[in-house]
Write a structure and sequence with these properties.
The protein is α/β, with parallel strands linked by helices and about 325 residues long. The chain folds into 2 domains: about 150 residues, Quinone Oxidoreductase, Chain A, domain 1 (Alpha-Beta Complex), CATH 3.90.180; about 130 residues, Rossmann fold (3-Layer(aba) Sandwich). The protein is about 30% helix and about 25% strand. The chain contains 10 helices and 15 strands. Strands 3, 4, 5, 6, 7, 14 and 15 form a 7-stranded mixed sheet that branches. The longest helix is centred in the last third of the chain and has 16 residues. It binds NADP nicotinamide-adenine-dinucleotide phosphate (NAP). NADP nicotinamide-adenine-dinucleotide phosphate binds next to helix 1, helix 3, helix 4 and strand 9. The site of NADP nicotinamide-adenine-dinucleotide phosphate has 28 residues, from helix 1, helix 3, helix 4 and strand 9.
Length: about 325
């Protein structure tokens, strides 16, 4: 099969098209004929650093849609021919290839109204957003939330979930993405370059019940000043700086890391995501579609910033 393989760890140029053997499956796995794979920042981080053991010969790609080609003997909920979507764990080769082996309990049937491109764009970011906003963030009807990085792959889904949960949504993004973020359900978009989010929240809401940070840097540290006492702060990127204000305000800080999450929650999460997509509470946001052979171009575009939603690669057979 054709696959985009790491020749080493480094820049996007290390992603090379190679012939590789079709994967063999274990009894608890399925073999998927891959149709589309979305790019996530973690792919770029792994490509550069070799995290999770992905060095020369490794295959990335952790947001997948396709059709079931073969099922292992222990698999009961899927059959050959089913259209599926999933986010695999980071223990084996990713799906930047024509075929991919994955443990079946992480896989769900693709909602019929979604194409393969849209379905590939939603599992990793959707699981992260759901865990952060609803599971760890406990966002409730009538509460107020601030989402930082609202136009990105995770943020664009988090805004939709927060809006659907009945919260008032403040969203931080660049002015170029303000219209999109408003259309996803943000009540008030804060321009990250011309407005100070702390001042805006102080002035317009006093404080928020939940702050969800998808960017990192000092957002968590600064954001502690505008989270209500006993409120919650969830981050998916290592926060920097002095976090001691959280102690004095009784703020609960949650870290969400999908890569280290429990399989139990991942299995529940993909089921929940399927329901949200079927009911069209959640809609994938795709900014760009490229053939898999252009993976290096996609990595460069993601790393140069300024985009929104997801970049998706299509796989030809
Ligand atoms: N822990 C986990 O489980 C987990 C899971 C998924 C992702 N992540 C991490 O979370 C981060 C976001 O992921 P993603 O997929 O949403 O990334 P993404 O699609 O690249 O989006 C990032 C967004 O951040 C905004 N941004 C960039 N620089 C900013 C700045 N200085 N201040 C405020 N906003 C800025 C950009 O939008 P604007 O230009 O419009 O502001 C961009 O759309 C990445 O670091 C990723 O590795 C962690």
């Amino acid at each position: 099969m054709k696959a985009m393989v790491l020749s080493a760890n480094g820049g996007p140029e290390v992603l090379t098209l190679q012939d590789r053997p079709k994967p063999e499956i274990r009894p608890d796995q399925i073999l998927v004929k891959v149709q589309a794979v979305a790019l996530n920042p973690i792919d770029c981080k792994i490509r550069k650093t070799g995290a999770f053991g992905y060095g020369a010969g490794g295959i990335l790609g952790f947001d997948v849609s396709g059709t079931v080609e073969q099922t292992g003997t222990l698999v009961t909920h899927l059959q050959p021919g089913d259209a599926v979507f999933y986010c695999p764990d980071f223990s084996g080769p990713g799906a930047n290839a024509q075929y991919h082996a994955v443990r079946a309990d992480l896989v769900a049937k693709k909602p019929e109204h979604l194409g393969y491109i849209e379905a590939a764009a939603v599992s990793l970011a959707g699981l992260t957003a759901w865990t952060a906003v609803l599971e760890q963030g406990h966002l409730r009807l009538g509460q107020t939330v601030l989402i930082v990085g609202a136009a990105g792959g995770v943020g664009s889904l988090a805004v939709q979930l927060a809006h659907a949960a009945g919260a008032y949504v403040f969203a931080v993004c660049s002015s170029a993405n303000a219209g999109l973020v408003r259309s996803l359900g943000a009540d008030r978009v804060i321009d990250r370059l011309s407005e100070d989010f702390v001042s805006v929240i102080h002035k317009e809401a006093g404080a928020v019940d939940l702050l969800f940070d998808c960017v990192g840097g000092d957002y968590v540290q600064r954001g502690m000043a505008i989270v209500k006492p006993m409120g919650r702060l969830v981050t998916i990127v290592d926060p920097k700086g002095d976090l001691s204000l959280g102690y004095r305000h009784n703020i609960t800080l949650h870290y969400v890391s999908l890569a280290f999450d429990s399989i139990r929650r991942r299995v529940d999460g993909i089921k929940m995501l399927t329901v949200l997509l079927e009911r069209e509470i959640l809609k994938p946001v795709v900014s760009r579609v490229l053939p898999l052979e252009k993976l290096a171009v996609a990595h460069r575009e993601l790393e140069s910033g300024g985009g929104f939603g997801k970049i998706v690669l299509t796989v030809s057979h």
